[in-house]
Structures are given as structure tokens and as C-alpha cells.
Amino acid sequence: MLKFLLILCVLLLSTTSPCEAAEAVSASVVEQEPSLIAEYMHHITTVMPSLIKGARITVLVTGISICFGVFIGLSMSLMKLSSRWWLRLPGVVYVDCVRGTPLLVQILIVYFGLPGLILGLTGQRFPIDPILAGVIAFSLNSGAYVAEIFRAGIQSIDRGQMEAARSLGMGHVMAMRLIILPQAFRRIIPPLGNEFIVLLKDSSLLSVIGVSELLMAGKLYAARTFAPFPTYIGIALVYLVMTVTLSRLVALSERKLSPKKS
User: Fold this and answer.
1) What is the distance, to the nearest Å, from the Cα of residue 244 to the centroid of all Cα atoms in its chain?
2) Tens digit of pLDDT for each residue in 52-96?
3) How many domains does the chain have?
4) What is the pLDDT of residues 85-101, one digit of tens each?
5) Mean pLDDT, to the nearest integer, of 174-199?
6) Quick check: is 46 in a domain?
7) DSSP-derived secondary structure for the chain
8) The domain containing residue 57 runs over which residues?
9) How many beta carbons lie within 10 A of that of residue 239, not counting itself?
10) CATH number at residue 140
């Protein structure tokens, strides 16, 4: 692409013949390509320690958010499946509100709105740490999507199994804990893993509130060196390594938990 643009400029502006000008520029670009690649590799290797440091924060925020998200999601899914309307309604409202608004807006609401809400209710200032705001926003967002994953998994289990468990004297909670949820969990591992991968990649949105995660670390380096292209290539490589590793772990867990075929 670079060759094409340079040759096109020469063809338009050169006073010599177009063929001679194009050959001259092409030869010049070929000579410069090794140094250009070396420069890009230099920037990628130089920025990599900063990217790895930012990736640690990315993994930390994502991991904590996943733990809270699974807890919230399981609770909301059980509330949505409840026969009592006063339990079902809050679950439905929560899932619809979170899934119906952008994650970036939720991050901004938590970071800027939560301190103002606490100030209005208590009269005390509550400066919130950007990482804490990110964990809260990600946990709430992930919880809504995980709730739908759990709900679909639970409803995929044959209803007769619950009836059989109840006929054996099990209560609803015991039957759900010992019979339904273990089977549902094995079925939801693939979509649950996809949700975790999406959450990992969405962590780049935390740069808007100043979290020094992977993308922010790269942006700071690019601003200092005026080398955005190799920097963002390095960021993409780090994200690729993390997502591929996570997807392989999910696949391994799926194989380990899948029922053995006789």
C-alpha cells in the first residue's frame, strides 16, 4: 500500500517520464523496507513491558468481574425462573436494563454518577477509584448476560428430572443444587467462555476513565513516540495471546466436565 501511494504521487507530480519515476520510487521503498520493519520491531519490543504491565491490570479486573458476574448471573437467573412475581420482576428489570444499555455508558454512570449519588444521599464525598468503578460496571454488565446463559441452561434440562427429584423427597433447593445445576453448568460452559472472552476484550473501554490497562498503556507510549501503528499491533498481539489462551482453557474445561461416553 505504501509503495502504491508513493508511486501514485510521483506519477502525478514528476516531470520525468512516469515509468522512470515509478521505478525510482519503487527501488527507494524496497531499500527502506528493512529499516522500516526494524523500526516497527523496535517499537513493539520497547513497548511490550508496558503492555504486559497493563495486561496484568486487564486480567485482574476481568477475573474479579467474572467471579462477581457469575454470582450475580446465577442469582438473577433463579429470580427470573421463580414462580413468585416479587422475585421474578426485579430479575427481569435488571437484565433488561443492563442488556439494553451500552457498556461504555454503564462505566461512565458508575464512575461519575455513583459518587454524586452517594453525595446526594449521605452528604459525604466518595471518590471512587477507576479500577473499582471498572470492576463494578463489568460485574453488573456480565451478570446480566450470565443470567440469560444460566436461565437457558437450566431450562434445557428435562423438567421430568426435577419432578423425579421431588418425588424422592428432595426439596426444590436441594434438587436444583444436586440435580439441575450440575447438568446445566456443563451445558453452558461454551457460551459462558465466550462471555468471558468478550469481557476481556471489552476491558479496553476502561481507558476512558483512566485505568492503566492494556490499551491505555499503549496509547501513552504512542503519544510519546508518535508511533501508533506498531504500538497498536503490539496491543493486538497481547490481546490475541490472552483470548486464545482463555479459549483453550474453556475448551479444556469443557472436555474435562463432559460426560464420559461408554
Assistant:
1) 13
2) 999 999 999 999 999 999 999 999 999 999 989 999 999 999 999
3) 1
4) 999 999 999 999 999 99
5) 91
6) no
7) -HHHHHHHHHHHH-SS-HHHHHHHHHHHHHHHHHHHHHHHHHHHHHHHHHHHHHHHHHHHHHHHHHHHHHHHHHHHHHHHT-S-HHHHHHHHHHHHHHHTS-HHHHHHIIIIIHHHHHHHHHS---PPPHHHHHHHHHHHHHHHHHHHHHHHHHHTS-HHHHHHHHHTT--HHHHIIIIIHHHHHHHHHHHHHHHHHHHHHHGGGGGGGT--SHHHHHHHHHHHHT-HHHHHHHHHHHHHHHHHHHHHHHHHHHHHHSPPP-
8) 53-256
9) 19
10) 1.10.3720.10
Question: Could you give the CA distance from residue 40 to residue 46 in angstroms, rounded to a whole number?
Answer: 10
- Look at residue 43 and tell me if it is in a domain: no
- Return the ∠ at Cα 237 (arms to 132 and 26), rounded to 5°: 140
Question: What is the distance between the alpha carbons of residues 242 and 77, in angstroms, rounded to a whole number?
Answer: 29
Please indicate, yes or no, if residue 35 is contained in any of the structural domains: no
Residues in the chain: 262
Residue 121 lies in a domain: yes
Task: Retrieve residue 105's grid coordinates.
Answer: 455508558
